[in-house]
Amino acid sequence: MCRCLTTLSACAFVCVSLFKESTGYEDVVDSFRMYLGEYLVPFGPYILTLYRLKNEDLGGSFPKFVNTVKQVPKSIAFLGDSIIASTVYDIVEAIGKKIEFKNIIRKARSGARWNNTAETTYDISNTGPAYNNTIWNQLNILASDINSNRHIAPDIIFISAGRNNAGVTIGDIDETFTGSILDREPNTILNLCDSIRFNVEFARSLFPNAIVILATPIQTAGVDLTPNANAIKACADRLSVKTINQFTESGIYRYDEINNPVFLYDGTHPNQLGADKIGLFLANELYSMIGI
Q1: Over the stretch 103-122, which tens digit does the pLDDT of each residue have?
Q2: Is 67 exposed, middle or buried (0-12, 13-18, 19+ CB in 10 A)?
Q3: Residue 17 to residue 14: CA distance in whole angstroms
Q4: What's the maximum distance between 2 C-alpha atoms anywhere in the chain?
Q5: Which of 175, 214, 209 is nearest to 81 (CA)?
Q6: From the centroid of its chain, how far is CA 118?
Q7: What is the CATH number of domain 70-290?
C-alpha cells in the first residue's frame, strides 16, 4: 500500500492505492471511509481512493477500526430522533455491518426531544402527539415492551438526540445537579440539562445492569447545535456516562454542508453516504467502549 499526501491552502488530499489482492484492503478502505468519506476509483490492479481533508483532520491519526464484523453478545436499544430512527438511510444498519449484536431494539422516533413539556404525559403508543415524543416516553415504551416479553432487557442503551432541542433552554448545570431529580413530575423537566440528568437516572432505575451511552447530535446546515452538544457532554461527565461526540468527530461539518453538501440531503438528515459514514464512526466508537 502506498500513500501520498498533498497539502493545499484550505484542504488536503490523500491518495491511497491498495492492491486489490492485498489481505484486508477492504478494512483499510472502511477505516478511511468512516473518518473522511471518499470515492473509490478502480485503476488496473489498484484501488485509488481520493479523500478531501479539512485542516483540523491533518493533525490526528487515522482511527484503527475493527478488521471484520465483530460479534458482541449483548443486546442494544437505540433511542433518539430521526437521525438514528431512519430506516431509509439507515445508520443502525450501517453499524450492523461492523458489529453483530445479540439483539437490536429500535425505539427512536422522528421528532423526538430530550425534554418534556408542561403537556407531556405517560404515552407508550409511539404515535402520540409531539409533546409526548420524548426520550422519557421512549424509555417507558422500552420498559413496557420488556415487561410484556416483547424484548429482552438491553445490556446497552444508546441515546442519540439533541437536534430537536434547538431553541430549548439549556439550563444551569450546577442547579441541575443539586438535589434529587427523579422525585419531580416528568412535566416539570423542561430544560436540556435537567432532561439529560432525569432521563439517564430514569434509565438506570429501569435497567440497573445496562450501560447508558449518549451521543451528541451531528452538525447540520441549519441551526448551530454547539450549545446542545456541549450540554450533553457536560451532563454526561457529571453522570459518569460514556459519550460519543458525533458533533466534532463524525466528520460531518456545518460549514461544508452549507456550502458544498455531501452527507446531508436536506441540511439536517444524512443521505446514504452520510448514514454509512456515521454508522462506521459509531460502530468504531461503540466497539471501543463495549467490545469484547
Answers
A1: 999 999 999 999 999 999 99
A2: middle
A3: 10
A4: 66
A5: 214
A6: 28
A7: 3.40.50.1110
